[in-house]
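Write out the bound-state structure for heme C.
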Amino acid sequence: MALNASNIVLACAGLVCAIAGGLLFMAKPAKSQVPQQFWLSPSQPTQPSQKAPQTAPGEILASTCAGCHGQDGNSEGPATPSIAGISVPYFLRTMEQYRQGKRNSTIMRRVALGYNAAEIEAMAYYFASQKFIPVKQPFDPKRAERGAIYHKRYCEYCHRDGGARAGREGILAGQWVPYLRATLTDMVVGKREMPHSMKRWMERLVRIEGEDAVEDLMHYYASNTKGATQSLLP
Ligand code: HEC
Ligand code: HEC
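---
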């Protein structure tokens, strides 16, 4: 479901997107009544398999990731993203993109190819249940202030809660900024697929506010260290 919904969001464009988005937005509050365990529990039916994975526990599998992504998925190196607390759908989609070579990587394609679907699913639940610890990074308060305005105008529609939401989009607030810059560059030059709707907003941002606006956003994400909020995606 999550992937289908995401596809629909990505496929809709322009005015249609704005209207459909408004409806989606209005529909969202109902979801917050679902208990948090609903999407964290491995016993719930999930994609891609409909049953609990027959494999080593996610925690054991994930220990091989710790060398780069840090204990529990909170990375200590600027080029390696923190993956603690990221949503299950985002994790699964990301690993699939790495496996298929659709997303640029230095190392992750090789890593992702080393696991089967059940193992990746087990790790997805493990990391989703870890606490995301925002990285403390230097930032310029003036630029962060401007970035906050740009975020609200151009990004918040999908990257909710000031970019802190662990939804289908990945966590931006408190993520390593050098990683965010690198992955945005990948998107701009076509080494990582950029959702069409996001592309439209990025182009609008640069056209109206100027190139510097992207860097202002980076300062904003560095400044927003309140921690991740969890989505209720299945
Ligand atoms: C040798 C270091 C290294 C190891 C080991 C490693 N990773 Fe990564 N990971 C990276 C780097 C660096 C990136 C950024 C993409 C790239 O350059 O490959 C990344 C990116 C990711 C992302 C994307 C995060 C986002 O916000 O989009 C996920 C998910 C991920 N890794 C999961 C894992 C899992 C699961 C494991 C263990 C099975 C693992 N990684 C092992 C270095 C590593
Ligand atoms: C219409 C929805 C939408 C809008 C608006 C949007 N994004 Fe995104 N963004 C996404 C989606 C979906 C993804 C995940 C794409 C994927 O991994 O395939 C994403 C991913 C990203 C990532 C990579 C996250 C990671 O952990 O690797 C960055 C960085 C990002 N967006 C920045 C921005 C910025 C900055 C803005 C505002 C200028 C913005 N986005 C506006 C939908 C959107």
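---
The two ends are 8 Å apart (CA to CA).
Residues 64-65, 67-69, 79-81, 83, 91, 94, 105-108, 111, 123, 170 surround heme C (ligand 1) (CB under 6 Å).
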